Amino acid sequence: MGLFFVYILKSSVCLAGFYLFYRLLLSKETFHRFNRMALLGLLVLSCLIPFVEVTVKEPSEVALPFLSMEEMLMMAGQVETGAMEEAVPVFPWREWLLVGYWVGILFFLLRHLWSLGRMLRLLGRCQRKVMENGIILYTHHEKVAPFSWMKAIVISEEDLEENGDAILKHEYAHIRNRHSWDLLLAEVCIFFQWFNPAAWLMKQELQNIHEYEADEWVISQGIDAKRYQLLIIKKAVGARL
Predict the structure, then answer these.
(1) 231 alpha-carbon distance from chain centroid
(2) Chain-centre distance for alpha carbon 188
(3) For 51-100, what is each residue's pLDDT tens digit?
(4) Main-chain dihedrals φ then ψ at residue 140, nearest 5 degrees
(5) Which residues, in sequence order, are CB contacts of 144 under 8 Å at separation 6+?
(6) Reading across the β-sheet that carries 152-156, which strands appear in turn?
(7) Which residues of the chain are under the pLDDT cut of 50?
(8) What's the confidence (pLDDT) of residue 55?
(9) Alpha-helix runs per DSSP H in the chain
(10) How many CB atoms lie within 10 A of CB 73?
(11) How far is the CA of 233 from the CAs of 201, 230, 238, in angstroms?
(12) In contact, 179 and 210? CB cutoff 8 Å
């Protein structure tokens, strides 16, 4: 178990460093496809780099604190055997740290299952229609924000009647570019690194890029750019404003 926590620690440090690199050098670029591939590549690299072992004769002063923390995590995952000498009781902060980590994973697991259950209940109240390319369209009589997941699109009957063409093209762009798989990878990363702000920020960056990619594709299909911009503003702040 100690090895697992050492791996999580190294991976989280790598992910935080990669996120800072992305924000400083790539976040302002408008090549959305490249930025998306870069983010996904950085996520995968942060999971693979901890497996790389680099041996040095003498650890540097910068590496010593990290090595000490790594040794403590290794010790936390091991069960001591043999007789123990009498000593002053010390607060078991390492055990509580590990318990808190697993409680966090359990919390986000339950939250994910609860969200999945809500989505399945919503789909159960929708009218189902199979479209081209195997895409399934779910229409709901109540006002729901349009969204897509894998090969399913959910939209309200009102949105379908008023702005169905633009919205369906937008959601189809998400499906066409397989954005759901990107978010699934980001969710798995958050699942194990829920304590790491960089994991949440990486997912937010991916979601923003997904929207930019979908908007570009919709406009390339002949939708009037000004009308489409007004539609986005209307969905964001309401028709009256």
Answers:
(1) 27
(2) 7
(3) 877 665 565 554 545 555 555 555 555 544 444 444 555 667 777 888 89
(4) -120, 140
(5) 122, 154, 155, 156
(6) 127-130, 136-140, 152-156, 147-149
(7) 62, 64, 79-86
(8) 62
(9) 2-25, 32-48, 63-76, 93-124, 157-176, 179-192, 197-220, 225-237
(10) 21
(11) 24, 5, 7
(12) yes
Distances (CA, A) of 133 to 137, 165, 172, 174: 11, 17, 10, 14
Q: What contacts 67, CB < 8 A, 6 or more positions away?
A: 59
**Structural tokens at position 231:** 């539609």
Scored b (16 or more CB within 10 A) or e, 143-170 reads ebebebbeebbbbbbebbeebbebbbbb
Whole-model pTM: value is: 0.81
Q: What count of residues does the chain have?
A: 241
Distance CA 6, CA 72 (A): 9
